[in-house]
Design brief:
The protein has helices at residues 7-30, 34-54, 59-62, 68-73, 85-112, 121-124, 132-147, 154-157, 161-194. The chain has 201 residues and is an all-alpha fold.
Length: 201
C-alpha cells in the first residue's frame, strides 16, 4: 500500500541509514582515511535517493502532478525513477547482488582477515553476521523473482515490500553500529591522550 505501514518505515530506515553513513564518512575523513570516507558518502547519497524514491519525493504529500514525459514511461505514473521499467529491472539485480555480497562478507572477512589489509575494514565493510537475516531476505526474494517469478503480478510484488523493509533496516543498523563504534573509539582515545605525561623540556 502506498504510504502504508510498511512503506513509511522503509523511508525512515533509508533516511536514517543516510544520516548515519554521512556521520561515518565525516569521522573517516577526519581520521585521515579519504577513500573510506568517500565510500560512505556514496552510501549516504544512495540511501538518501532511495528514501526519496520510496515516497515519490513527497509527491503524494504536496500533491504535484507527474510531468507528462515521465508519466508515459513510469508504470505507476509517479515522480520516481525506479518505476521506469528498465531501471526497475536493473535496480532489482543490483539489490540482489548487494544483498548476496552483504551475506557473504562476514565469511570472506574471517577467511582473508580484511583488518590486516585495511584499517577498520573488518567493521566498516563487513556487516555483523546477524544482519544476514535482513540482507538474506532480500537476496532470496530477488533470486526467486529472477529465476521463477519474473512477471510483475500484484500477488508477487506486494510481498516485496517486506524484503525491502528488511534490507532498509539492515542498512540502518549497519551504518548505526559503525557510527557508534567509531564514536566510542574516539571517546576512549581522548581520556588516554589527556592522561599522558607532558614531555620533558
Amino acid at each position: 500500500m502506498e504510504d502504508g505501514p510498511i512503506e513509511w518505515p522503509q523511508f525512515f530506515c533509508f533516511l536514517g541509514a543516510a544520516i548515519m553513513a554521512m556521520g561515518v564518512a565525516i569521522k573517516r575523513l577526519r581520521a585521515g582515511h579519504p577513500w573510506q570516507g568517500l565510500l560512505f558518502i556514496g552510501f549516504a547519497l544512495a540511501t538518501f535517493v532511495i528514501a526519496g524514491e520510496e515516497i515519490s519525493w513527497g509527491q503524494r504529500i504536496f500533491g504535484w502532478q507527474t510531468p507528462a514525459e515521465l508519466a508515459e514511461i513510469n508504470h505507476q505514473g509517479e515522480t520516481t525513477v525506479h518505476n521506469i521499467r528498465w531501471v526497475q529491472e536493473l535496480l532489482g539485480n543490483l539489490l540482489m547482488v548487494a544483498s548476496g555480497i552483504a551475506v557473504a562478507m562476514p565469511f570472506f572477512s574471517k577467511k582473508y582477515d580484511f583488518a590486516k589489509r585495511w584499517d577498520q575494514a573488518n567493521f566498516l565493510f563487513v556487516p555483523p553476521i546477524f544482519l544476514a537475516t535482513c540482507f538474506g531476505t532480500m537476496f532470496l526474494y530477488k533470486l526467486v523473482r529472477l529465476v521463477a517469478l519474473r512477471t510483475s503480478e500484484f500477488t508477487v510484488t506486494k510481498y516485496g515490500e517486506w524484503p525491502e523493509l528488511c534490507f532498509a533496516a539492515g542498512l540502518l543498523l549497519f551504518a548505526y553500529l559503525n557510527y557508534r563504534r567509531l564514536s566510542a573509539n574516539v571517546a576512549v582515545a581522548a581520556p588516554a591522550a589527556s592522561n599522558q605525561a607532558p614531555a620533558a623540556k
